[in-house]
Write a structure and sequence with these properties.
Blueprint (H helix, E strand, L loop, with lengths): L2 H9 L11 E5 L18 E6 L15 E7 L9 E3 L6 E3 L12 E12 L2 E5 L7 E8 L2 H4 L23
Amino acid sequence: MDHHLISALLKGPAVEYKIRPIGVIRTEFKTKEQCPIQGKTQPDNKGQIVVFDEYADGLQDIELFSHITLLYHFDKAGEIKLVRPTFLDDACHGVFSSRHPCRPNGIGLTTVKLIARNGNVLQVTGVDMLDETPLIDIKPYMPRFDRFSDANNGWAENKKMRPKPADRE
Protein backbone atom coordinates (compact mmCIF):
# COMPACT_ATOMS: atom_id res chain seq x y z
CA MET A 1 0.00 0.00 0.00
CA ASP A 2 1.21 3.48 -0.81
CA HIS A 3 2.85 5.31 2.14
CA HIS A 4 0.82 8.48 1.45
CA LEU A 5 -2.45 6.51 1.45
CA ILE A 6 -1.57 4.90 4.79
CA SER A 7 -0.69 8.29 6.24
CA ALA A 8 -3.99 9.76 5.02
CA LEU A 9 -5.97 6.86 6.49
CA LEU A 10 -4.28 7.25 9.87
CA LYS A 11 -4.88 11.02 9.95
CA GLY A 12 -8.47 10.80 8.76
CA PRO A 13 -11.55 10.47 10.96
CA ALA A 14 -11.93 7.21 12.82
CA VAL A 15 -14.32 4.90 11.06
CA GLU A 16 -16.61 2.77 13.17
CA TYR A 17 -18.56 -0.19 11.94
CA LYS A 18 -21.77 -1.35 13.49
CA ILE A 19 -22.31 -5.09 13.52
CA ARG A 20 -25.57 -6.47 14.79
CA PRO A 21 -25.72 -10.04 16.01
CA ILE A 22 -27.75 -12.36 13.80
CA GLY A 23 -28.25 -14.87 16.58
CA VAL A 24 -26.76 -16.47 19.65
CA ILE A 25 -24.57 -19.52 20.22
CA ARG A 26 -25.71 -21.88 22.98
CA THR A 27 -23.15 -24.22 24.56
CA GLU A 28 -22.58 -26.00 27.86
CA PHE A 29 -19.62 -23.72 28.66
CA LYS A 30 -20.52 -21.15 31.30
CA THR A 31 -16.95 -20.07 32.17
CA LYS A 32 -13.81 -19.33 30.16
CA GLU A 33 -12.00 -22.11 32.00
CA GLN A 34 -14.48 -24.68 30.69
CA CYS A 35 -14.02 -23.74 27.02
CA PRO A 36 -11.63 -25.84 24.97
CA ILE A 37 -8.73 -24.14 23.20
CA GLN A 38 -10.07 -25.09 19.76
CA GLY A 39 -13.36 -26.74 18.81
CA LYS A 40 -11.74 -29.25 16.46
CA THR A 41 -9.87 -30.77 19.43
CA GLN A 42 -13.21 -31.52 21.12
CA PRO A 43 -15.38 -32.72 18.21
CA ASP A 44 -18.11 -34.13 20.48
CA ASN A 45 -18.88 -30.80 22.18
CA LYS A 46 -22.48 -30.05 21.24
CA GLY A 47 -24.02 -26.66 20.73
CA GLN A 48 -26.94 -24.85 19.17
CA ILE A 49 -26.86 -21.91 16.84
CA VAL A 50 -30.07 -19.93 17.29
CA VAL A 51 -30.53 -17.52 14.40
CA PHE A 52 -32.92 -14.65 15.09
CA ASP A 53 -36.23 -14.96 13.24
CA GLU A 54 -35.54 -11.92 11.05
CA TYR A 55 -32.50 -13.73 9.55
CA ALA A 56 -33.94 -17.27 9.38
CA ASP A 57 -34.60 -17.11 5.62
CA GLY A 58 -30.83 -16.79 5.15
CA LEU A 59 -30.45 -20.39 6.33
CA GLN A 60 -32.02 -21.79 3.17
CA ASP A 61 -29.90 -24.75 1.95
CA ILE A 62 -27.43 -24.55 4.87
CA GLU A 63 -28.27 -28.17 5.74
CA LEU A 64 -26.65 -29.24 2.45
CA PHE A 65 -23.22 -28.54 4.01
CA SER A 66 -21.45 -30.83 6.46
CA HIS A 67 -19.58 -27.99 8.18
CA ILE A 68 -20.15 -24.29 8.71
CA THR A 69 -17.88 -21.50 9.88
CA LEU A 70 -19.17 -19.27 12.65
CA LEU A 71 -18.01 -15.72 13.19
CA TYR A 72 -18.84 -14.40 16.62
CA HIS A 73 -18.00 -11.71 19.13
CA PHE A 74 -15.68 -12.44 22.06
CA ASP A 75 -18.01 -10.39 24.24
CA LYS A 76 -16.49 -11.64 27.49
CA ALA A 77 -12.81 -11.38 26.52
CA GLY A 78 -10.47 -9.51 28.80
CA GLU A 79 -7.69 -7.01 28.31
CA ILE A 80 -6.41 -6.56 24.78
CA LYS A 81 -2.67 -7.14 24.54
CA LEU A 82 -1.03 -7.15 21.13
CA VAL A 83 1.77 -9.47 22.28
CA ARG A 84 1.23 -12.20 24.86
CA PRO A 85 1.69 -15.90 25.64
CA THR A 86 -0.94 -18.12 24.06
CA PHE A 87 -2.77 -21.20 25.28
CA LEU A 88 -0.39 -23.46 23.33
CA ASP A 89 2.89 -21.72 24.10
CA ASP A 90 4.56 -19.88 26.97
CA ALA A 91 6.50 -17.67 24.55
CA CYS A 92 4.88 -14.40 23.52
CA HIS A 93 3.35 -14.07 20.05
CA GLY A 94 1.53 -11.26 18.30
CA VAL A 95 -2.25 -11.42 18.60
CA PHE A 96 -2.55 -11.53 14.81
CA SER A 97 -0.40 -14.67 14.69
CA SER A 98 -2.62 -16.41 17.24
CA ARG A 99 -6.27 -17.18 17.84
CA HIS A 100 -6.31 -15.56 21.25
CA PRO A 101 -9.72 -14.12 22.22
CA CYS A 102 -8.41 -10.77 23.52
CA ARG A 103 -8.18 -8.98 20.17
CA PRO A 104 -8.69 -5.37 19.05
CA ASN A 105 -12.03 -6.19 17.39
CA GLY A 106 -12.91 -9.32 19.36
CA ILE A 107 -13.98 -11.44 16.39
CA GLY A 108 -13.88 -15.21 16.83
CA LEU A 109 -13.93 -17.88 14.14
CA THR A 110 -14.70 -21.59 14.49
CA THR A 111 -15.64 -24.22 11.94
CA VAL A 112 -18.18 -26.67 13.36
CA LYS A 113 -19.90 -29.79 12.09
CA LEU A 114 -23.55 -29.21 11.17
CA ILE A 115 -25.65 -32.07 12.53
CA ALA A 116 -29.18 -30.83 11.85
CA ARG A 117 -31.34 -27.83 11.12
CA ASN A 118 -34.67 -27.31 12.84
CA GLY A 119 -36.10 -24.07 11.48
CA ASN A 120 -33.87 -21.29 12.77
CA VAL A 121 -31.88 -23.59 15.11
CA LEU A 122 -28.76 -25.43 13.98
CA GLN A 123 -27.43 -28.40 15.96
CA VAL A 124 -23.63 -28.48 15.74
CA THR A 125 -20.60 -30.19 17.27
CA GLY A 126 -17.05 -28.98 17.81
CA VAL A 127 -17.98 -25.79 19.67
CA ASP A 128 -15.44 -23.82 21.68
CA MET A 129 -17.32 -20.71 22.72
CA LEU A 130 -19.10 -19.56 25.85
CA ASP A 131 -22.84 -20.00 26.21
CA GLU A 132 -24.83 -17.05 24.85
CA THR A 133 -22.01 -15.81 22.60
CA PRO A 134 -23.32 -13.28 20.05
CA LEU A 135 -23.28 -14.71 16.51
CA ILE A 136 -22.08 -12.30 13.81
CA ASP A 137 -22.24 -14.46 10.69
CA ILE A 138 -22.37 -17.99 9.27
CA LYS A 139 -20.52 -19.15 6.19
CA PRO A 140 -20.52 -22.62 4.65
CA TYR A 141 -17.19 -24.43 4.90
CA MET A 142 -16.21 -25.35 1.35
CA PRO A 143 -13.09 -27.51 1.09
CA ARG A 144 -12.54 -26.51 -2.54
CA PHE A 145 -12.11 -22.89 -1.39
CA ASP A 146 -11.14 -23.14 2.30
CA ARG A 147 -8.55 -25.93 2.40
CA PHE A 148 -4.98 -25.27 1.30
CA SER A 149 -2.81 -28.36 0.87
CA ASP A 150 0.41 -26.33 1.19
CA ALA A 151 -0.59 -24.47 4.40
CA ASN A 152 1.57 -24.66 7.53
CA ASN A 153 1.01 -24.00 11.22
CA GLY A 154 3.68 -21.32 11.73
CA TRP A 155 5.05 -21.15 15.28
CA ALA A 156 2.42 -23.70 16.43
CA GLU A 157 3.66 -26.45 14.05
CA ASN A 158 5.26 -28.60 16.76
CA LYS A 159 3.26 -27.42 19.76
CA LYS A 160 1.34 -30.20 21.49
CA MET A 161 -2.19 -29.68 22.74
CA ARG A 162 -2.25 -29.09 26.47
CA PRO A 163 -4.73 -28.03 29.11
CA LYS A 164 -5.45 -24.33 29.10
CA PRO A 165 -2.95 -22.68 31.50
CA ALA A 166 -4.72 -21.42 34.62
CA ASP A 167 -3.11 -17.97 34.48
CA ARG A 168 -4.16 -17.23 30.90
CA GLU A 169 -7.36 -15.79 29.57
